[in-house]
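Entry 14. Ran structure prediction on the chain below.
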Amino acid sequence: MTYETFTEFNASGVEGLLTYPAQIVPIFIPVLLAVFFLIIALASYFSQKRLGGSASFVSSFAVASYVTTVLAIAMTLIPNLINTFVIIVCLVISALATLWLYISKDRE
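Output, structure tokens:
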């Protein structure tokens, strides 16, 4: 079984760079979103810690989930890039992060 190479793929620009690996490896977009989530969460946490002396993981988790959800919704603009299940998972994680942030005790 041969794979379609990128030169034979009928897309160009950022659309082609994201759609081609997503078609070859279906888990590419969820892993990309998870890595983006981790980078935002850790950057937010350590930035809070460096600037304020203390940090709240709950707020960093919430911010990362919101940003990742916005990115996932923006990815729906490219056809066949992201499926509905991934969008629903991002929305559920954002809702749970909002609930966790609301009921956490470390709010100021």
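The chain has one domain: 13-103. Will compare against last week's run tomorrow.
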